[in-house]
Amino acid sequence: MSAVYDCNRPETRAEGLAAAASAVRSGRLVVLPTDTVYGIGADAFDSSAVGALLRAKHRGPDLPVGVLVGSWSTVDGLVLGVPPQARALIEAFWPGDLSIVLPHAPSLRWDLGSTRGTVTLRMPLHPVALELLRDVGPMAVSSANVAGRPAPTSVPEAQDQVGESVAVYLDGGPSGEPVPSSVIDLTGAEPVLLRAGAVGAEAISEVLGAPVKTAA
Do 85 and 191 contact (CB within 8 A), yes or no? Predict the structure, then answer.
């Protein structure tokens, strides 16, 4: 049976984070609050756990799972290289609502779906998520919804969709408006905004010093 922990209370928050960390390390799924919507997460390096995450969402590997990190420095060990444009965006918007696509380090043994040698990285601006990430390391995280249904903004909404497939639910209260993170691809010759979300194209362009193309 899934366990739910109220992370707005110090005593149950500590207990919940410990239970979530134990679940992640043992290959189980957790639901956690982020600065956008509630996410369903697993150890990014456990392919079986990532597969369970995709099954819980009724989603195939054709839509790969992004990775959340708990610090800027974690990125260096996950990608082939961090170009100046990525550094500038990280400094400007992390922790926050910008996901960055980069070529992943070829030495990494993970299976996040059909990534074609890339990984989508983000550092969320939420204390519960950051504390868990800093404890367990990078997590594969996607919105805690079944494919085709709205992304949840509360634990009850997440429970209604992914139910007992999740071992631990960390309840941080309502997340507010379900605005997704923006996604920018830095794997090509020029930056491409794949998804417009919480961070606008103008703000990204200002940091990069040039207009940003948007995906067709």
Answer: yes
Q: Are strands 118-122 and 66-68 parallel, antiparallel or unpaired?
A: parallel
Which alpha helices (DSSP H) does 31-142 contain, by range?
47-56, 84-93, 127-136
In the chain, what are the domains? 3-214 (3.90.870.10)
Q: Convert the pLDDT of each residue in 6-53 to its tens digit.
A: 999 999 999 999 999 999 999 999 999 999 999 999 999 999 999 999
pTM confidence score: 0.95
Distance CA 99, CA 133 (A): 16
Which of these, 75, 42, 38, 48, lies nearest to 174 by C-alpha position?
A: 38
Report how far residue 128's alpha carbon sits from residue 30's, in angstroms, rounded to the nearest whole number. Answer: 12
Taking the CA of residue 146 as centre, how many other CA atoms within 13 Å lie in the half-sphere pointing to its CB?
9
Contact between 54 and 113 (Cβ < 8 Å): yes
Q: How far is CA 159 from the centre of its chain?
A: 18
Which runs of consecutive H residues, i.e. helices, occur in 94-200?
A: 127-136, 155-162
